[in-house]
Amino acid sequence: MLDRPATPPLDDLTSLLAGWPGEHTIAVADRHQLLGVGGAVDRVERIASITKLFTAYACLIALEEGTITLDDDAGPQGSTVRHLLAHASGLPFEGPNPVAGVGERRVYSNTGIEMLAEHLASKAGMAFGDYLGLGVLEPLGLGHVDPHVSPAHGLRMSVPDLVRFGQELLSPSLVHPDTLTMAVTPVFPELRGVLPGFGAIGANPWGLGFEIRGAKDPHWTAPEHSPGTFGHFGGAGSFLWVDPQRSLIGATIGTVEFGDWAVAAWPVLNSELLARFSP
């Protein structure tokens, strides 16, 4: 488990939450330690779509084991595991009926991730929640997290739990570094699409489950973030980003759903975190 910060924390970030609606916890860390925290460190909330990163990581483990391949048929006709991970299957946000052809647009889809989990479960011969728990959560010291929820949006965690996962993404131990590099490299990089909450994006890079910052504007990360920054935000008012160029991780959870407040507040927050903690 991630060590809790000393009292007081190395850097108290509570002031950065001023003016935010509801209650929130934020943190920034490097690959070794928590550098700063604001809010209740033991707060546990639903992380919503950040769940998809954990599902993607389970898929990377399954790829290395040979349980699945990126070219497995999965989802709508003509779609593969690769398409589902990269939100390129044409499936809508919710529902089984495609709204675009396979590989035509970046259409963000909860249904696609749920179909992906079903495919892995079928190939592994075990419930996806069991696979996620045994393969990802327990080895990272997150065995207290219930994995038997929606693989697209159901996990509940604390910010230290998210930071622990972020540290794994900076220094992978459960998969080979080359596998993670593949996963955070744009897949079908030419695809246009809509970034939920931020509008249409001319080039909307996505990896194998991981959103990639690229040159997106507007975006929930800071303008100063490196283009290779990857992660995800959740509709429950949460985010996790990993900036490999700076070896930094940022995370937040809260009690207020994503909305206009987050569109305005998150880039400002993340700019301040980079200004304080960039090496």
Structural description of this entry:
The chain has 279 residues and is of the alpha+beta class. The strands form three sheets. It has a six-stranded antiparallel β-sheet with strand order 2-1-10-9-8-7, with helices on both faces. Strands 3-4 form a two-stranded antiparallel sheet. Strands 5-6 form a two-stranded antiparallel sheet. The longest helix has 18 residues, at 260-277. A hairpin with a 4-residue loop joins β9 (238-243) and β10 (248-254). The chain is built from seven helices and ten strands. The chain has a single domain, classed as DD-peptidase/beta-lactamase superfamily (Beta-lactamase).
Name the features.
alpha+beta; about 280 residues; 6-stranded antiparallel beta sheet; globular; two-stranded antiparallel sheet; Beta-lactamase
